[in-house]
Design goal:
281 residues, two-stranded parallel ribbon, 3-stranded parallel beta sheet
């Protein structure tokens, strides 16, 4: 979301809502409620000891009350109706939770996706109740091409580093179900608030293209990250003491899960028409 806000010219940095020094101006122009490592599955943030999505929703309600104290109820309602809401979650549910630990193995990948989608729908409906009308929801990436997934599923970590399609296939199927559910939600006119729009943001195909036709995008490295070994490190394992590659622009991935700034820029440029249409709706 930081990247989208910057490239859209809204603000250079989207500050976290929990920043104790958050100014009134920042409150009005937009904040982030995200917590790295969270997900739609209630177990996912528990495993990572991060902020759950229901708790993020509570923070959003607190934020709204603070905004009402500054702008009044009528202007706050207008503000909410015209604000842009960007939601990106689900990858950690599969990669960190479902595939890595056995707790959710009573689900198949299909039924686990359906379980996640019920939480997605509940979350969107709660945002609608609070006045959100312009919501962009990001799909899953080609999970089998994430360096961490390749590392954990390769017979030889150093020499056999191709994408593992069975994991990417799960992402493709989930994305199809997600698009279908969002379509059905908007068809249910009795429950959809007036003026509500939901836009699906595809990152699977553009990221997949960058990986498989990386020369066309100016990338050299596609199966390891720039930080550390690039095979397993992510979040706190990439820090000020970590080795960093000399030229991140040659890498698709910054760490073992997240793209580099250059890769994010390509993703944003593909998504921009949908984002612009949603903002201007």
């Amino acid at each position: 979301m930081h990247v989208a806000a910057s490239y859209l010219g809204l603000k250079d940095l989207l500050p976290p809502y929990l920043d104790p020094n958050l100014s009134n101006k920042e409150i009005i122009t937009g904040v982030s409620f995200a917590s790295a490592g969270s997900g739609f599955d209630p177990l996912t943030p528990t495993l990572g000891n991060v902020i759950s999505i229901p708790k993020q929703l509570e923070h959003f309600k607190e934020y709204k009350k603070r905004l009402e104290g500054m702008l009044g109820e009528r202007k706050t309602e207008y503000h909410m109706n015209n604000a842009f809401f960007f939601i990106s979650a689900g990858t950690n549910d599969y990669v960190i939770n479902y595939f890595s630990v056995p707790i959710r193995r009573n689900y198949t990948p299909l039924t686990y996706g359906q379980f996640l989608l019920q939480h997605v729908k509940d979350f969107i409906q709660n945002l609608w109740k609070e006045g959100a009308r312009k919501i962009a929801l990001v799909g899953l990436p080609p999970m089998g091409c994430l360096p961490i997934v390749i590392t954990l599923n390769s017979h030889n970590v150093f020499f056999e580093r191709g994408c593992v399609d069975k994991y990417s296939a799960v992402a493709r199927h989930y994305n199809m179900m997600l698009q279908h559910e969002l379509f059905l939600m908007q068809l249910n006119f009795s429950n959809v608030p007036l003026g509500a729009k939901i836009s699906y943001i595809d990152i699977y195909e553009p990221l997949n293209n960058m990986i498989h036709w990386h020369e066309n995008f100016g990338f050299d490295e596609v199966d390891q990250g720039c930080c550390g070994s690039g095979y397993i490190e992510t979040t706190f394992m990439c820090n000020g003491f970590s080795f960093v590659c000399s030229d991140p622009s040659k890498f698709v991935f910054w760490d073992s899960i997240h793209p580099t700034e250059k890769a994010y820029f390509h993703l944003f440029m593909v998504a921009r028409p949908n984002i612009d249409a949603l903002i201007n709706a």
